[in-house]
UniProtKB/TrEMBL annotation:
<dbReference type="InterPro" id="IPR050980">
    <property type="entry name" value="2C_sensor_his_kinase"/>
</dbReference>
<keyword id="KW-0808">Transferase</keyword>
<feature type="domain" description="Histidine kinase">
    <location>
        <begin position="182"/>
        <end position="391"/>
    </location>
</feature>
<dbReference type="InterPro" id="IPR036890">
    <property type="entry name" value="HATPase_C_sf"/>
</dbReference>
<keyword id="KW-0067">ATP-binding</keyword>
<dbReference type="InterPro" id="IPR031623">
    <property type="entry name" value="HisKA_4TM"/>
</dbReference>
<dbReference type="InterPro" id="IPR004358">
    <property type="entry name" value="Sig_transdc_His_kin-like_C"/>
</dbReference>
<feature type="transmembrane region" description="Helical">
    <location>
        <begin position="100"/>
        <end position="122"/>
    </location>
</feature>
<feature type="transmembrane region" description="Helical">
    <location>
        <begin position="34"/>
        <end position="54"/>
    </location>
</feature>
<keyword id="KW-0472">Membrane</keyword>
<dbReference type="Pfam" id="PF16926">
    <property type="entry name" value="HisKA_4TM"/>
</dbReference>
<feature type="transmembrane region" description="Helical">
    <location>
        <begin position="60"/>
        <end position="79"/>
    </location>
</feature>
<dbReference type="GO" id="GO:0005524">
    <property type="term" value="F:ATP binding"/>
</dbReference>
<keyword id="KW-0418">Kinase</keyword>
<feature type="region of interest" description="Disordered">
    <location>
        <begin position="1"/>
        <end position="29"/>
    </location>
</feature>
<dbReference type="GO" id="GO:0004673">
    <property type="term" value="F:protein histidine kinase activity"/>
</dbReference>
<feature type="transmembrane region" description="Helical">
    <location>
        <begin position="128"/>
        <end position="148"/>
    </location>
</feature>
Length: 407
């Protein structure tokens, strides 16, 4: 959806003309800066013609006076047109700047005209030079007023747009918080209650057919809980200021590896972790590595699944932490990823309501990092996650408490 900010300087007829002939209107607007520069160029041509028409005025004083009075202002107009074209002034305001420029020229000439009539110059050369000076100086003054006005209006429009956008972001954050609470208190709790009652009934039931149906309810309830947790992870990652906090990635990975060791007893996990690896983010980073670790085990068809997790801190981070990165490598010994699925590996799957690797990519991007498949083959796959290194001296609020409160 696109939104057009209303411009009080543009009349309804102008807007209608723009809509009826957008290309022609755009060309007219874009000619604005060149009109100003062309005005300056024409003024220079008039000055040169004046020199040729009145050679007897080629004294040092006359030449210097003509340069100062008309030559420099003319060059200033030429530069002003280029400046206008390169500025952030909206093209819709070019016409107004040109009107100020032209109006200033006519206005200042009109102010000087009575004096020129009552007290005329002693010769024609001086009169023409005087008129030329009035027109050029007035054009420069008018352009200056128009340009400053256009810049002021532009800044006001941008400030208003920034305020509106800030209000929209605040509303979006409030909506995300509401949705998070709704998922937690209504949907997630209901799904857990359904799964719990199904488990209790299955344990008390002797009818195999009913037990099978209750098992299906349990399984679907668990799947629903997984989806809810994935969605809530994305909501938490987009809550705003919390994403700029500092998290020790070593602690996050140690916790996740310990959890998956307990969950998959037949899998072998090996880690190479530094004592500390602070990164920018929040506890939502756990979902990045939870999904990658789960993918490395659940899709591993080897007799003895193995996963190696390595964390490396870029050397640049030792001297300038704010410019460094932390790289996490997750390698498994599976049979590799089929070539036909590699291109869509990090896309959301329509046949599977879980977000999986898609969530890992979205979250990593949200935290200013990347996640990608580095290599894959019959000997296994290697995923690499890169995240911005954070200074360990930065303010580090108790993110775990904040995140657990949120969920």
């Amino acid at each position: 959806m696109s939104h057009e900010t209303s411009d009080p300087d543009r009349t309804a007829s102008e807007r209608n003309r723009d809509q009826s002939s957008p290309s022609g209107s755009r060309r007219r607007r874009e000619c604005g800066p060149w009109f100003v520069s062309g005005f300056g160029g024409l003024s220079v041509c008039v000055l040169v013609a004046w020199w040729f028409a009145f050679p007897d005025q080629h004294t040092a004083t006359g030449f210097a006076l003509s340069i100062v009075s008309t030559g420099i202002p003319s060059l200033g107009l030429g530069w002003g047109g280029v400046r206008l074209a390169r500025s952030d002034v909206d093209a819709h305001r070019y016409a107004r700047v040109c009107k100020w420029c032209f109006g200033g020229a006519i206005g200042f000439l009109a102010i000087n005209l009575p004096t020129m009539i009552v007290f005329p110059w002693y010769d024609l050369a001086g009169t023409i030079s005087w008129a030329h000076f009035a027109v050029t100086t007035g054009a420069v003054g008018g352009f200056a007023v128009g340009y400053v006005e256009a810049r002021a209006i532009q800044r006001e429009v941008e400030a208003t747009a920034a305020t509106v956008r800030a209000n929209q972001l605040e509303d979006e954050r409030e909506l995300l918080t509401y949705l998070n609470d709704l998922l937690r208190h209504e949907v997630l709790n209901s799904a857990q209650i359904i799964g719990g009652h199904a488990t209790l009934l299955r344990e008390e039931c002797d009818d195999d057919r009913v037990r099978n149906r209750l098992t299906t309810i349990e399984r679907k309830s668990d799947d629903l809980i997984d989806v809810i947790e994935d969605v809530r992870a994305m909501l938490n990652a987009n809550r705003g200021p919390e994403t700029a906090a500092v998290v020790d990635l070593t602690d996050v990975i140690e916790d996740q590896v310990a959890a998956y060791r307990a969950r998959f007893g037949d899998a072998v996990f090996k880690t190479e972790l530094p004592d500390s690896a602070p990164v920018s983010g929040n506890e939502g980073l756990t979902w990045v590595f939870a999904n990658l670790l789960e993918n490395a085990i659940e899709h591993n068809d080897s007799e003895s699944p193995r996963v190696r997790v390595t964390v490396e801190t870029a050397s640049a981070a030792e001297t300038k932490p704010e410019t460094g990165t932390v790289t996490v490598t997750i390698a498994d010994n599976g049979s590799g990823i089929p070539e036909k699925t590699r291109e869509t590996l990090f896309e959301r799957k329509s046949k599977n309501h879980g977000l999986g690797l898609y969530l890992s990519r979205i979250l990593a991007d949200r935290y200013g990092g990347t996640v990608e498949l580095d290599e894959t083959g019959p000997d296994g796959s290697v995923f690499v996650v890169t995240l911005p290194h954070a200074s360990p001296d930065a303010d580090e609020p108790d993110e775990r408490d904040e995140f657990e409160t949120a969920i």
